[in-house]
Specification:
With 242 residues, this protein is an alpha/beta fold. It contains ten helices and six strands; from the N terminus they run βαααααβαβααβαββα.
Length: 242
């Protein structure tokens, strides 16, 4: 696969561009300390992944902050230590504080010179706007679960993406979907024939992290967005004989 063969890069945002695992743990830290929760970071994140998937499937029209609030309550129930409505709501609103990965803004600024950049995110428009400033670029299009009415991994998100980009005169073969989560992104993207690049970011807490696991194989793998940029740069340099 040659990156330079594509015209549009579409991105899953949280986990790929925004460090949601650090954000999740930071947002739950106060509750864990106050309640003396006994549990490893990896267990908290894996519980998050289970409950997020279930809530998104059951409540596709619910805005993401409300999904997060419900997930927080479920995590508390797992540990037998209640998370009250105020703390649950605070967790739901914590997206604005979730940090970007260190390489995201610089990598996106470089990629913007060569590709159209599009977001396909499981959050709502307001929540994405709160984090967008950390990414350092103006995306050419932003499609959210709020716009679509379903959460990934529902493949209707990717049908929506392809329909909108077809309206901008981009074919499926022009598009490379770039994402960290195999469960949310690679499985449905490949099911409708998109080529995908996996940003295989490590999980500092260990374990499977905040996403469900699957055995799907993406078309390319990079350990960071910076590595993807460097690979593309080498392709361009080889193309001009350098």
């Amino acid at each position: 696969m040659k990156l330079s063969a594509y015209k549009v890069l579409t991105f899953g945002c949280y986990g790929t561009l925004i460090d949601w695992e650090s954000g999740i743990l930071a947002a739950l830290a106060g509750w864990r300390v106050r309640s003396a929760v006994v549990g490893a970071d990896r267990d908290i994140l894996e519980a998050f992944g289970r409950h997020e998937a279930a809530e998104q499937s059951a409540n596709p029209a619910m805005l993401y902050p409300e999904i997060l609030a419900r997930v927080a309550v479920h995590i508390g129930d797992d540990y037998g230590i209640a998370i009250g409505p105020a703390d649950a709501k605070k967790f739901g609103q914590s997206l604005a504080d979730w940090p970007a990965f260190a390489d995201s803004a610089d990598a996106l600024r470089v990629l913007k010179q060569h590709f159209k950049l599009v977001i396909l995110s499981n959050v709502d428009r307001h929540s994405f706007a709160a984090g967008n400033g950390k990414l350092g670029v103006d995306f050419d299009a932003i499609y959210t679960a709020q716009d679509i009415g379903f959460y990934k991994p529902d493949r209707r998100n990717f049908v929506y993406l392809l329909e909108r980009l077809a309206g901008l005169r981009y074919a499926k073969t022009d598009i490379l979907h770039v994402a960290q989560s195999k469960f949310h992104d690679h499985v449905p993207a490949k099911a409708i024939g998109l080529t995908t690049a996996w940003i295989d970011r490590p999980h500092p807490a260990g374990g499977q992290g905040a996403t469900r696991q699957t055995t799907i194989e993406p078309d390319a793998r990079f350990e960071s967005l910076a590595e993807l940029v460097n690979t593309h740069r080498r392709e361009l340099n080889q193309g001009i004989g350098l």
